Prior knowledge:
- The protein is built from 19 helices and no strands.
- α7 (about 130-145) runs antiparallel to α8, α8 runs antiparallel to α9 (about 170-180) and α11 packs antiparallel against α12.
- By secondary structure, it is mainly alpha-helical.
Amino acid sequence: FQRETGRLPLAVLNYVAALEHQPAQLLARDRAKTLRNLGRAYAGLERYDEARDVWTEALELSQELPDESPQEIALTHHAIGEAYRSQGHYRDAEMSLREALHHHSDGNLAQAETLRALGQTMHAAGRPEAAIQPLKDALDIEKAQSPQSNARLVNTLRLLADAQESRHDLSAAVARHHEALVYMDRRTQPVPYADTLRTLGRLYHAQEEFEAAHKAYAEALEIENDHVPRSDERVSATLQAIATVYRDQGDLERAAEYYQQVTGYANYSRRATDDLRETLDELERRRAMLQAAQQSLTLLDRSDNTGLKDLVFIMALIARSYANLNQPQTSAEAIHNLLDSLAEYHDDLDTDAEDPDLRALAWLDAAADADRSDDVRAAQRACNLAHKLTSNDNLRWVIEQFAQSLSQN
């Protein structure tokens, strides 16, 4: 009772006193049980060396009892493994936990707990690939129980997701977190539910699945705004995450909007203020770039001796600048205008021109011409040649966007 209620120092004193009246020769079974409980008390106090010593004695006594429960032996090995794991002795922990598995009955929760601990040990040891199968086996056992324990399932699913993320299998990690949400109740567990949604948002962001990231973060923010008491830390962290997704997505105006909201939280405003300043500066640079490019195009249009290459390079810069300002439709129109301009010079273009960039323009024009004829394969081949030839980053970007539109068609 004292150990279970957290009065561990007093529990240790009483267990030690009990052992004085339980000689191994006469009361081996009772002594082994007391030793196991003493080990748990020591472990609760983080006195792991002492815990392992008494558990080891318990094991030695158990081996001398022919009718001793294999389950008790398994639990003792498990406890020793957990003590090793707590100290970072992962190889010893693995050996103890695998020994425990030899004594467990198949399909019970104690076996699942040992499998889960083994998975945690492997992951902590820097071997996430070795953690996955034990965690999957634990999950299968837990799902087979009747009734199921949702809390236990969620815990194992999260551990499995973490191991899969460490293996850079982000899609599998996402699937596990979504499965965990099935076993959670948004109404009664709002904070853990929102935490899982934030994790999903982070994983989607890492995979550049921006819309899915926004959806996860938006639901998390809704939960946090409705939760009482409201946590400024969690709300601001969610807003910050949303802003960062928008920023990486290229929508600097929306990013600035969310960074601005974070600055309203006194304890969290410093980083957000810096991010807001950087975002606004970048937004201003992009706007200035577009304006300068448009002015250059105007000057080129007025000139009588404008070279085609210079004209196309400026038009490519304009198209990319619109994309950088999160104006995809306007960017697409600018690319269409660029291709129309090339078509006007069709007779002057030569795929054997001396200048590689001029050869690139000829092949890009050929790609557009093939697209108009619905010859997608020829258009893609011409795009590939144009992409290899050009030295201009903005034109290369335009070619990539056009090639992507071909694959979508």
